[in-house]
Design goal:
CATH architecture: Up-down Bundle
Low-confidence stretches: 74-88
Mean pLDDT: 85
Number of domains: 1
Helix content: over 70%
Structural class: mainly alpha
CATH class: Mainly Alpha
Distance between the termini: 43 Å
Shape: elongated
Amino acid sequence: MNNEKNIEILNDVTAKLIDSCKGYNMCADVAEDNLVLKNQFKQRESARQQLVNEFKSKVSELGGEVENSGTVGGSAHRAFTQFMSVFKDDSKAAVDALDTGEEHLAEYIADKRKESGLHADTTLLLNRAHASALEGERFADLLDD
């Protein structure tokens, strides 16, 4: 597969990862009264941001234009979560949104990993991002119990 296709896939996933960073940040804001939980959200946001930086670095290395913003869908998802928090507990709404977002991210990356001809480095990054999304989903499930 050529560099352009790898760049496109990396940038697509980068945008979704940026969305998830913003989601973890939103959850940390909601958890302001629970410092332990707030710190866990911040740590996950930081780890996810590190992945974003690695994806951007790879795109640059391949000669591509780096993705610096999230997706319209991610913005809509956060807006819907804020709207839903009017009707239910803010933290419950945030955890539900986190769970949904991480599940969507894992599925999205799984689909991208099926593309043929990916560079080995691209596959490695996608595998790491997929594992991170699955871990985020398990974390959200634990909070939801």
